Amino acid sequence: IYLTATASKMSILGLKKKQPKTFKVKVITMDAEMEFSCEVKWKGKDLFDLVCRTVGLRETWFFGLRYTVKDTYAWLKPEKRVLDQEVPKDSPITFHFLAKFFPEKVEEELVQEITQHLFFLQVKKQILDEEIFCSPEASVLLASYAVQAKYGDYDPNFHKPGFLAQDELLPKRVLMQYQMTADMWEEKITAWYAEHRGIARDEAEMEYLKIAQDLEMYGVSYFAITQNKRDTDLLLGVDAQGLHIYSPNSKLNPNKSFPWSDIRNISYSEKEFTIKPLDKKKDVFKFYSSQLRVNKLILQLCIGNHDLFMRRRKVDSIEVQQMKAQAKEEKARKKMERQILAREKQMREEAERAKEEMERRLFQLQDEARLANEALLRSEETADLLAEKAQIAEEEAKLLAHKAAEAEQERQRLEVTAMKTKEEKRLMEQKMREAEQLAVKLVEQSERRLKEADHLKQDLTEAKDAERRAKQKLLEITKTTYPLIAAYSTPPAPPEASDYESASTRLDFKDSDMKRLSMEIERERLEYMEKSKHLQDQLKELKSEIESLKLEEQQQQAGLYGLHSEARGYVQEPIKSFCLILF
């Protein structure tokens, strides 16, 4: 931002006739650049007041205009003319508007919002430039407050991954210390950033400063010094609390400190500085600086910090009290405005949600209406189809009624058939029982006949043996009789007729018995064969009847099939047993 202002001195009598000579100045603040045309006779205070009025700053005692001189820097002195000081001879002359002195407690001492903002920007830059040491954990937390101050509340719909890619938020030392990508650092910062929801910009900047003021290097100005004549290198630190002596390699922990409340006097003679403690028993501390310009700067910072130290311990001036009251009212007003804004935002969000809900409901109702129309068309088509189906169903009902009547007739017929089947089953069972009884009788007769045949065969065998023995005896008798007749030459007397008759009768009896027995055996065998044949014929007839019953049962319903199967089981089981008996 470039602002150009022309400052001129107006006298009580009016404007001068001739415009005095001017020189150009460029003032760089932490967030803007301004250019002014200044009169040659202006003092440092005139330029400083102009800058403060332009910025709108009332807490002017913390700030100053700094410029570069050779290899160091210096602050513009308010009581001397600008051009009489060792300012650069460039055109325009460049000054930096910076905080020269730092408060002990930022929350109590910084009143104006612009003051807080300028301190926030300067401290943030010092941390990023590693002028103030900050641990990685504190750096991430400070970065999250800086993001809150810049972007406001976190919104995942708006703050997409990568939205911090162009922002410098962490010191390079911290980035190099860990092997983490930019996305990983952004994720860590965003996690803290999301926790700061509802914090305003000025509150976020104040939280940033409250954390930063606890850092060891916060608000400390360092200068290289030597102690006594041994040329021992040391560092002198000047801040709001006092003077500190550091080792060259350690700016965090001072070796020795001199609080402002314990210092009675500070003086320097050319390159030698003397610090006299308030307690006269303590030794005077002396140190040396190599440049006279640095000595003047050290003394200037010491005087300014000591004055502010004493000022903090006094009652605030009327101006400061008015500023604090105005700041309090301003904060209360802004807080109320934020609350109103938050309510309006909430109401707007609720209205937007309600609108979205209504639009969603409207779309839903439209979809439902479209689906209802489609369903209506489908229902009309379905009604036509149902009418056709009703007609078809009516015809099918008539056909089914006709089939039901036929089925009823068939059922009655099957009942009659079932009754007949039961009667036939009963008759079959009766026949089977008779057949079994007959088979048992035949088996018994067969066994009896076999036994009789065995007895007859035994009798026949005995008869044949008796005949054979009789014939043998007759031959023996005959052989014995004829030789005796020949010896005595006397003809034998003829046998008596009664003897011949008795012998022939015995032979004839034996032959007739044999024939009769053989005839009886043959007759019994023939009768047995006839009965067996008759029984086989009956079995064949019974099997044919069973086969016919099977064919009839296959034509009946499944309900009567079980009954028929049971009857068939009743019939087949005796037949099997009967056949086993026969064969």
Automatic annotation (TrEMBL):
Keywords: Cell membrane, Coiled coil, Membrane. Its main location: membrane. A 1,2-diacyl-sn-glycero-3-phospho-(1D-myo-inositol) binds at K77, P78, E79, K80, K296. The keyword Secreted does not apply. It is found in: Cell membrane. Residues 324-473, 525-559 form a coiled coil. It is a peripheral membrane protein. SMART domains: B41 (SM00295), FERM_C (SM01196). GO terms for molecular function: actin binding. This is Merlin-like. It comes from Echeneis naucrates. The gene is nf2b.
